Amino acid sequence: MQQYFLNQKCPELGATFSLEKADSHHLFTVMRAQAAEKVQVVFSDQTLTLAEVNGEQETLTLLKILSRTVELPLGVTIAVGLPKSDKLEFITQKATELGAQAILAYPAQWSVTKLDAKKAAKKQERLEKIAKGAAEQSKRLMIPETEILSNLKALTDQFDRYDQVLIAYEESAKTGETAAFVDRLSQLKSGQNLLVIFGPEGGLSPEEIEKFTQLGAVKIGLGPRIMRAETAPLYVLSAISFYTELLG
């Protein structure tokens, strides 16, 4: 069943409404929806609904409110140092499928990729489309926020928004550190917010690690194997899902 997001509050049952222009085109022109066909629509308040296609004027009628628990118990934001080529697009798509609340990208000291304002705006638009499509495909109740930050300070200024800030640090993995990740997860309660920071292909510089830890972030290891820049965020999200949803 197709699912769409609509940036407005959920109307009353029986109400007739229209999707946003691009989604309406997809449903009625690309998918050739017929009268009485059912689709799911998620409204801005994360209300999941079942709606029926009307035969005229490309509108929908709200049939009922659905209940489904799909979001992670923790609000997880991942922040990645700008990676090369299309890796950020890949991370955004997969992180959305795995339940991330937000995906941030920042120009790390050792990032090879450099974006001027024009390129950043274009990539930002691309990431938003990818996140929306992935959220629809994975039947999320929200579209993750995506943002390309202009500098490191734009990232550290956000630390106080989170109940815990973690740094996925490869040197911790190399030294065999395995306890910090589980220990910090065990301290968080459902509904709290977590930020996990990852470096680009070259890793995080000592200066960045020092800055993060001075502001209260905690270094964690992710096991004995060193992962690529695009793999580590997905590992962390998978581990959080296992710990909070399957073990919990």
TrEMBL record:
UniProt cross-references to InterPro entries, sorted A to Z: Alpha/beta_knot_MTases (IPR029028), PUA-like_sf (IPR015947), RsmE (IPR006700), RsmE_MTase_dom (IPR046886), RsmE_PUA-like (IPR046887), tRNA_m1G_MTases_N (IPR029026)
UniProt catalytic activity: uridine(1498) in 16S rRNA + S-adenosyl-L-methionine = N(3)-methyluridine(1498) in 16S rRNA + S-adenosyl-L-homocysteine + H(+)
One GO term of the biological process aspect: rRNA base methylation
Domain annotation Ribosomal RNA small subunit methyltransferase E PUA-like: ranges: 19-57
Any single Pfam family the record assigns to this protein: Methyltrans_RNA
CDD domains: RsmE-like (cd18084)
Ranges in coiled-coil conformation: none
Record keywords, A-Z: Cytoplasm, Methyltransferase, rRNA processing, S-adenosyl-L-methionine, Transferase
Example GO molecular function: rRNA (uridine-N3-)-methyltransferase activity
Enzyme Commission identifier(s): 2.1.1.193
Family: Belongs to the RNA methyltransferase RsmE family.
Name of the protein in question: Ribosomal RNA small subunit methyltransferase E
